[in-house]
Amino acid sequence: MKIAFFDSKAYDEEFFSPYLDKNTKMKFFETKLNEDTVSLANGYNVVCVFVNDDVNAAVIDKLCEYGVKLIALRCAGYNNVDLKHASGKIGVVRVPAYSPYAVAEHTMALLLTMVRNTHKAYVRTKSFNFSLSGLLGFDLYGKKIGIIGTGKIGGIFGGICKGFGMKVLAYDKFPNGALDFEYTSLDRIFDECDIISLHCPLTEETYHLIDKQSINSMKKGVIIVNTSRGALINAESLLEGIKSKKIGGACLDVYEEESELFFEDNSDLIVNDDTLALLMTMPNVLVTSHQAFFTKEALSNIAETTVQNIKEYLENGSCINEVQ
Ligand code: NAD
């Protein structure tokens, strides 16, 4: 096996190395895969890519020309690969699930931080400011949370909320009878919930699910949590909702225009996104950089499944985790 990893970080090498033997030639490129960098894949039979690599038709043609047999995504989503163009030319595999607990636990971490202001307290106490002024929070116990999307992550997160004594209302296009949640309409969730957490996929149907209209129908002071996909929320409407104080807080692990910014250190750059810049100035907006998945367990599962996928595909010409 000769694998070229793109958009790789030191932790990718650390977590993949135990699963690969010395007969495997691997190279970890920091650069993203795109038309300018695809020549680096020459001489490899597998490229291993992540969420922001651009595997478009031109890149796929070049990969085929170089004899690359497989595009191995080390993530669940595959919206960055031109699947139609790849079909019949090159294999595409992915990691459908790695640790729903990682994402569900991070969701609760964000929510707890928001409602107890630990992000502010951390900074203050570093400079020996032990004042409690401005740190007043509220109990999660007894609050009503609306969970939109009760799949692997939403289901686990709802269970965590129940452990806190919260009342869970749920909405899913395909409700899961095995979960002990009260399923209801989206309208009732918007109308009644103190907290709304998004766990559905980004589709045409869910694009901008949270917009001006839905925000208008929410309770004043609602906390919105998004650890799913950025474009579930219209960021402009969110900002308006924060400014008008209709929204009491926003916890965002994902952002609509994150692809050029997240996962990188942009601290020396002038960021050209006024909406994000304004959101970041708000004391009740908490942003993490798409890190909900980022646990040792999840990275280890991603590496293990990716290597299994590659071996299975190269041996059999097919794989259970193939995307078609
Ligand atoms: P999943 O497929 O197990 O669950 C998704 C649920 O959403 C399903 O129950 C499905 O029926 C439901 N759904 C589909 N369309 C819907 C609609 N229109 N309205 C309401 N519900 C709908 O997925 P999962 O593993 O639980 O992941 C959920 C989301 O979390 C993913 O789509 C992904 O975008 C995101 N995610 C984020 C991170 C991160 O690091 N922040 C990591 C992994 C996944």
Verbal overview:
- The protein has 324 residues and is of the alpha/beta class.
- The protein folds into two domains: 2-98 and 296-316, NAD(P)-binding Rossmann-like Domain (Rossmann fold), CATH 3.40.50.720; 100-287, NAD(P)-binding Rossmann-like Domain (Rossmann fold), CATH 3.40.50.720.
- The protein has eleven helices and twelve strands.
- The protein has helices at 10-16, 57-65, 83-86, 100-116, 118-126, 152-163, 186-192, 212-216, 235-243, 274-281, 296-316; strands at residues 2-5, 25-28, 46-49, 70-73, 91-93, 144-148, 167-171, 182-183, 195-198, 222-226, 247-252, 285-287.
- The strands form two sheets. The protein has a seven-stranded parallel beta sheet, sandwiched between helices.
- Bound molecules: nicotinamide-adenine-dinucleotide (NAD).
